[in-house]
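Hey, can you fold this one?
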Amino acid sequence: MLALRKSVSVGRGRRLVILASVTCLAMTGCGMRISHDRVVAASGAGQSGTVVDPLTGAPVDPGAPVSGLPGASGPTGTTGNVGPLSPGPTSGSVAPVGPGTPGKPGTSRGSGGGAAGVCKGTGTILLGNVAPYGASAVGQNFAPGRDALKIWETDVNNRGGICGRKVKVFAVDDGGNASRTSAAMRDLVENKHVVAIVAWGTALTMQAGLGYLEQKQIPVLGGDLLGMGWSSSPIMFPEGAGFDEAIYGALTSSKRPGAANKMALFYCAEAQSCADANDLVTRQGIGKAAGTPVVYTAKVSLTAVSFASECQQAKQAGADIVLMGGDASFVERIANSCAQQGIQFRYTTVSLAVQDGQSQNPNFQNGNFAVATPVIPWPSTATPGAKEYSAAYHRYYPDLVNSGTAMSWWASGKLAEAVISRIGSGAVTPASILAAARGLRNETLNGLTGPLSFGSGGAARGQGSPRCYYTVEVRNNKWVARDNGKLHCRSGPPLTKEGGGTR
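Sure. Predicted structure:
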C-alpha cells in the first residue's frame, strides 16, 4: 500500500493535505497508480445525487474552480484559466440528438448538467473497458490509461454526469490473452449490460473481441488505434488519427533538412499491430510516401536484451531514423543498445509506447526522439480540451504517470461523452450510441483531436482515418509539444485502401 499525498489550495493561503491509500497493481512498470476501488467508491457516492471528492468522499460543488492550479480562481474564459469545466458543446460538434430520436438534431448538449429542464436523463450509463493492463510485455504502456479513464469517469460524474446520468466504467485487464479478451467482452455485454466499449486496448487481441462486438452491434468509442481494424470496422470510432496516418506522421516528424532521412524498422514479433506496421511502411509504401524510404527491417522479440547486431546492420544500410514497434521498455533498450555500439539514430514510435520517464534518456535528447500523437500531446495546454485534461488530473490524481496512452484514454472518454450527449434525454442503448456517433461531423473534442467525422459505418463509411496529428519530442530532459501543440493535417489521397473510407 502506498500513501498518495495531494495538496490543494483552500481559503487564504491555507493548505489542505489529503492522504489516500492506493494499491499498485502487480504488473510491469505500474508505478504510482490510483486505486480503482477507492475512486469507484467515492464516485459511487455521487449516484444518489451528491457530488463528492474522489479522494476524500466529502461533498463538493461540481461547478467550483479546480483548486491548486495557476489561474484556477479566475473567471471562466480568462487567459490560463482551468476552472469550471464548461457544459457547452465541443468545438465542431453537430447539434445533439433529440430525446428518443437518434440521428435527428435536438436542442441542447446535455453534458455537465445542461440547461435546467432541457436534458434530464435517468439511470446510469454502463460502459466497458478492456486492455492488457497486466501483460508482462506491454502492460507498462497501458497502465496509465486506466488511471486516466478513471479520472474522466470521476470528473464527468462530479460535473453532473451526461444529461443527468452518472457514468460507470467496468475496467477489465485481459492480460493480452485472446481467451480472456473474448470472455471479458461477453461478460460485459451479456452480464454487465454495457452499452459501449470505451478506450479499448487492442494491440494484442483485437480479433478475439471484434467479431463478437460487430455481431452484437456494440460500439467502440476510442482506444489504442493500433491496427487498421480501427479504420475498417463499422462499429469502431477512433478518437484520433488512424494507424496508417500515425505512422506517416511519426516518420515525417523525424525528418531533418539535409539529412539522408532513410528509415530502419525494428518491429516486435509478439503483436499483430507490429506486423501491421511492417506491412504499412514496406508493402503499402508509407515509408516512401513520408519521404523516409525503408532500407532495413528487423523482426525482434519484445523481451530481447540487446539489439547490437540490428543497430549495426541498420547503420550499414544507411539508416538515420529508426521506427520502433514495441512497448516503452523495448524502445529504450533499442536506443541504449545502439548507443553502446557508438551509433546514434533519430528515433520514433507510436504514441502509446511513450511515457514521461523516457525524457531522461540521454539518447533521446535534442529532438532525437520525436513522436506523432493521434490526439494533442499531454504536455500541451494550448486548447480548452487540453486545459480540461490538465485541470482534471491535477485535481484528482496529480501523480498520474503521464503518457500517450493516458491522453488517448482521456480523449476516448471525452469522445464517449460527446457522443452520448447527442442522445439527449432519450434511451441510451448500443443502437442510439451508434446512430449518434455516426452523426458526428468535424468534432474536435474542444481541441483534443483533429476533426472527426463518421458515417453509416463508422470510420469505414465516414471520412476514413482522420488525417491530422500532433508531435511531441524530447528537449532538455522534458517532453514538449512541438509548435505548442500545433495540429498538422495531411492533404491528398488516402495512404491505404483500409484507411480511405468512402469519400
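The longest strand covers residues 2-10. Let me know if you want another pass with a different chain boundary.
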